[in-house]
Amino acid sequence: MQMDWLDGVAFSGLKSHWLDWSEGRRALVTRLVGANQGHLFEGWELKGASDALKEVLLVKLEGVERNYPRGVCGYVENSRRLLAVARGGENPFEGFVPEQPDRVDVTAFDGLYDRMEALGAEQFDRMGVVLVAGGLGERLGFGGIKVDIPVESVRGTPYLKLYADAILAMEVRMGAGCRVPFVIMVSADTDEKTRASLVANEYFGLVASQVHVVRQELVPAVADHEGRLALGARYELLMKPHGHGDVHMLLHSSGLARRLFGEGIRRLVFIQDTNGQVFNAVPAALGVAVEQGYDFMSLAVNRIPGEAVGGLAKLVRGAEALTLNVEYNQLDPLLRATVSPEGDVANAEGFSMFPGNINVLVIGMEAYVAILEETEGVVAEFVNPKFADEERRVFKKPTRLETMMQDLPKLFSPEQRVGVAVFDRSWCFSANKNRVADAAARQRGGGPAESAATAEADFYHAGRARLRSAGMVVEEADVVAVQGISFVPGPRVVLCPSFAMRLSEVREKVRGGVISGEATLILDGADIRLEGVELRGRSGLVIEAVPGACVRVRGRFENEGFERVVLGADELEDVAIAETVRMRGYRMVDRGAAVFRFEEPGVYEVCGELA
Ligand code: UGB
Predict the structure, then answer these.
(1) How far, in whole angstroms, is CA 412 from its chain's centroid?
(2) Which of 17, 275, 491, 507 is spaced 20 to 30 Å from 223 by Cα?
(3) What is d(CA 554, CA 512) in angstroms, rounded to the nearest whole number?
(4) Strand bridging mode 549-557 / 528-535
C-alpha cells in the first residue's frame, strides 16, 4: 500500500503513534485519509501529548466503522451523494400530487371494528412488538427515560410496564407457550436506564430471552459538501443522532429480523415510547393489515392542521404512486404547491386534509426482510443542512444524515401494498412529549398539548370509551386547568390488558352500571365481571385478581376514593417531589378507595350497596 502521505510534516504526530496501533486501526486511518478525511489527523501533537483525546477520536471512528453499513467511508459517500441533492435545492416531492391513501376507517366501534379485532387477535402468536425508545425527549426535558414515566398516577404504571402487560395479555390469549418477541431500541442516552428498569422490575413478568435490546449509535456530523467529518474542539469528532429509522438497520445487523421471520413471526408492530393507548388499537390494526394484505400499514388519526404529526398521503406522479408520511415540516409547502393553495388548513370537519401519522406501524416480515437485506437496513436517509449563503455552499453548522422509521415504503416496489388504518384519536394515541409551558402554549394555539397531564387524561378517556361500548353510563367530570393545561380529570378508568385486550371482552365482562365525575375504576385480572356497578363523585374501586380468581362485582360503592391534589407553586419548584409528579401539576392521594385483592384462584363476590 502507498503510504507516502504518512511521511508528510502534517502527519508527523500521527506517525508517532503508528507502530503502536493494530493493523485494523492503521487500515481504517489510511482509508479515511484516502476518503478526504486527512484533516482529522493533520497537525497532531507527537505521541505523549493529548493521547487520551486522540484515543477517544479513534474509538468513535472505529465505532462508526463497526455499526454503519459499509463503515465510515460508506457514511461519507452517502453524505456526499445526499448533500449534492440538497445543494441542488431539489424538492423531493417535485411533480407529485398528494391524494388520499388507501385507507380503512376504523374510527367507529361497529361491526367492522369487531371483525378486525377478532381477526387481529388470531395473529398474536405471529407478531412481535418493536419499541423505539432511543429519543432523549428534549421537548419534555425529563431527567430520566420516558418509558419509566407513569402513564397514570393512581397506580403509577410506567409505560414500559404497560407495554409488557399488553404483551403478556396477548400471550395468555394464545395459550401456553406463546412468546411475543419484544424488541426495544435504545440509544446511549437511554440504554443504561432502560436495561436497569427491565432488570429491577424482573422484565415486568416477561422472560428475559424474549426481550431484545438493540442500541442505536450516533453518526458523525459533516462539515461541508465534500463530506468532511466535523471536528469540535481539537480531536473531538462531533457526533449526532441518526433518527428512529435506525431501528431498521439494527433489526438487520443484529440478525433479529431474519431470525424472527424464521421462527414464524409474520408481522412487527412498531410503537413509540409514550403512547398509553397504543395497544387498544393493535388487535384491530393487525386485522386490517391481514385482511387488506398490507406489507406496511400506518395507524393514523384525524390530523389537526399544523400539529407535529406527519400527514399520510398517496403521492402520485404519472404512473408512479407512493403512499408515504409527509413529515410535519414538509406538509404545508407540499399542499401549497399542489392541492391546497392555502396550505395545511382545516376542512369542514376541522381536520387537516390527510390523516395524521402516529408512527405506529404494522410491517409484514416477508417484504421487510427482503428490503433489509437489499439495503443493509439503511432506510431512506436524508440530509437537511441549513445553508449560510444563497449559493448553498456553506453550512450554518455541521449537519448529519438522518432516517425515519416510517419512510420504509420509499424502498417498496409497486407490488408491495401500503395502507393506512384510521382510528379515533383518543382511542389509540396520546403522547407525553412537551414540557408544561410549551404544552400549554400548544393547547392555547388549538393543538394537542401532548403533556403528562393530557396523556393521563386521554388514557382514562379511552377507558371510558370501552365502558360506554359495554353499555355502562359514563358521566364525565368538568374540564379543569392545571398549570395552564386543560383536561377532563375523570372518571378515571383503567382496564388493564389482563382484563381486556379487545372491546368484545369488555362487553362480555361489564353489564350496565354508572360511573361519573372523578370516580376511579381499576380492573386488573382476566375473570372479573361487573354487573350494575355504580361509582359516583370521587369514589374509587380497585379489583385485582390473579389468574383463576373469578370475581363478580355488584352494587354501589361510595367512598372518598382517590383525590387529585393540585401542587402549590412552591411544590412545583421543589426538587424533592418527583419530576414525574411535577410535570403533571398534581398528585393522586388515596383517601379510602375500596380495594379488593384476590391472590388465590377461586370464586368470589364483591358486593357494594344494593339498590
Ligand atoms: N426515537 C428513537 O428511538 N431514536 C431517535 O434517534 C429519535 C427518536 P419523536 P417526532 O407520532 O407524534 C414522530 O422525537 O419528531 C424514538 C414522527 O416522525 O417523539 O415527534 C423516540 O424515543 C411524526 O411523523 O418524534 O415525530 C420516540 O419513541 C409523528 O408521527 C419516537 O422515536 C410523531 O412522531 C418518536 O420520536 C408523532
Answers:
(1) 22
(2) 17
(3) 10
(4) parallel
Measured CA to CA, the distance from residue 237 to residue 54 in angstroms comes to: 10
Angle at 472 between CA 466 and CA 477, to 5 degrees: 80
**In angstroms, what is the span from residue 376 Cα to ligand 1's centroid?**
22
Grid coordinates representing 114?
369487531
Q: Is the peptide bond before 241 cis (omega within 30 degrees of 0)?
A: no
User: How far is it, in rounded angstroms, from Cα 122 to Cα 247?
Assistant: 26
Q: In 283-306, which positions are buried (b, 16+ CB within 10 angstroms) versus exposed (e)?
A: bbbbbbbbebebbbbbbbbbbbbb
Q: Distance, CA 274 to ligand 1 centroid (Å)?
A: 10
Instruction: Supply the residue whose CA is at minimum distance from atom 33 of ligand 1.
Output: 309
CA distance 406 to 408: 6
> Look-up: residue for cell 403533571?
584
Minimum-distance ligand 1 atom for the alpha carbon of 429? 11
| DSSP helix/strand/coil, 362 | strand
pLDDT per residue over 215-225, tens digit each? 999 999 999 99
Q: How far apart are CA 118 and CA 359, in angstroms?
A: 23
DSSP code, position 605:
E
The burial class, CB within 10 Å (0-12 / 13-18 / 19+), for 116 is: buried
Residue type, 268: L
- How long, in residues, is the chain? 611
Claim: this prediction has a pTM higher than 0.85:
yes
Give tens-digit pLDDT for 376-432.
999 999 998 888 988 888 999 999 999 999 999 999 988 999 999 999 999 999 999
- Amino acid identity of 14? L
